[in-house]
Amino acid sequence: MYCQKCRTPLKLDGSLESLNPAAFDLLIGSTGKSLPENANNLPSGRTSYPQDRRALYDRVSQQATSPVYRRTIPAPRNGVASQATPPALGRGDSGGMSFVMLTESQVVPHHAVHGVNGESPRGKRQANTERYGRDVEEGSFTDQVERTNRLFEIISARSDIDHPICAECTDMLVEGLQKRLLTATKERDAYISFLKSLNASVPSVEEVETAENSLKAALEAEEAAFQELLALEKENATLDEEIAALEEESRQLDLEEEKFWRDRNSFALTLSEFQNERDALNMRYDHDSRQLERLQRTNVYNDAFCIGHDGYFGTINGLRLGRLANPSVDWAEINAAWGQTALLLATIAERLGFQFRGYKIIPMGSTSRIEKIEYPQQSSSQSAAASRDHTASAAPKVTMLDLFSSGDLPLNLPWIHRRFDAGMVAFLECLRQLGEYVETTPAPLPSPRRGHTTVTAPGLRLPYEIKRDKIGDASIKLGFNQNDETWTRACKYTLTCCKFLLAHASNVASAASSSSAAAATR
């Protein structure tokens, strides 16, 4: 035997081995009567269980597997064709009819009494007696097991629990049934209290009338609210139409705005391109203007003839013009300085368009000369006028004057420098003539406004007055009473006047370039 819950092997109680019919009937009767065959024959008009539980039972019963023991009472094991099937045991039926004790004549067949192969009757009886004893013992054990199984089948068929079960499962089953009983008791109490409250809350006639009046008022309010709802829905439909019209107008405005921004972006792009081009042109114009101003400020004469000073000496292109005892200057450097000075004066006269009267400067480096042109039987003033008259029939007298000296003074005679002194005096005369021309000619000045014509200023005067062989207070001649310092100072004054004329020529050139640029811009 095994427990039908936990499948644990069971040891049956000894009282089940010697059950009499009364005890068997008592056990069968204690399980109670089975349910009637037809549930519809109940005295009450409704079923004893809820419909949801019935539906749950039907659904579970369709999916449930077959139990270990079927709750049906099977037929007896020793059912013979000649014997009738015993009736099912009810509550009052005897349990002794569940099995039949067979006699020896029924257990042992008749043909087995006689010996086989000539055995003696005594030996056969002894063998049959032993066999009968074994059969009785086996039959008693089998009948006991069959009776016990039938007992458990009947009990299982008449209850909701499969038997047999062990003591532990019985305790658990009892505990579960107690919980179910407690739950059912609480449910019953809840139903009772609800029924009492329901019976106590039965309204009176006045309460019914009040409720009906309230219901009528509520229905009227509902009707009014419904009419108001219809009006609101109509107004809502009108508003929806207006919203649709406004949305359509908004879409049109969006399209117009999109077109406007597209045109605006296109215009902004075009304007940006124009502005970039304008900025590029302005940058180019500014660069060219600065370049023009830089070029206008560039003085080629200053670069070609750099006049300065070195201590007490005046210098031109780094060559000292003058002579002192300490430091001493070679005559080669002095001659080269006079050559640069002669070239400078000739260049300025050519730039200003001036022609010397009675003199012609021939710049030849360290051996530069000045030609003195004299016409016969004419005064000095007339010779100046005759120099401009190319139709004169008499040939002029040309005297070469040196602007250099070898420095050799035989016997320390200073009159050996007579030709050199005459050349320096002639250079001062040329310088004086060019200074008078500049003084009598209006000096052009650049206009402060770019692109306009220049204005003129009165003529400029040389910083040092030239009179014959003197410039300022120093004589240009080398004589008996002339010391080197005076001659060096006279040479320095000469370079100063040349630098003055050089600046004037640069201004004239700048004014001319500005005028040409203004004319070109027109």
Would you mind describing this structure in some detail?
With 522 residues, the protein is mainly alpha-helical. It is built from eleven helices and eleven strands. A hairpin with a 2-residue loop joins strand 1 (307-310) and strand 2. Keywords: Coiled coil. Residues 295-507 form the Atg6 BARA domain.
Please give a handful of descriptors for the protein shown.
Actin-binding Protein, T-fimbrin, domain 1; three-stranded antiparallel beta sheet; mainly alpha; 11 helices; 11 strands; 522 residues
Which secondary structure elements does this structure contain, and how are they paired or packed?
Elements: H1 21-29, H2 51-63, H3 104-107, H4 121-157, H5 167-200, H6 205-297, H7 300-304, E1 307-310, E2 313-316, E3 319-321, H8 331-352, E4 359-362, E5 369-374, H9 380-386, E6 397-402, H10 418-440, E7 443-445, E8 455-457, E9 466-467, E10 470-471, E11 474-475, H11 484-521
Antiparallel strand pairs: 1-2, 2-3, 4-5, 5-6, 7-8, 9-10, 10-11
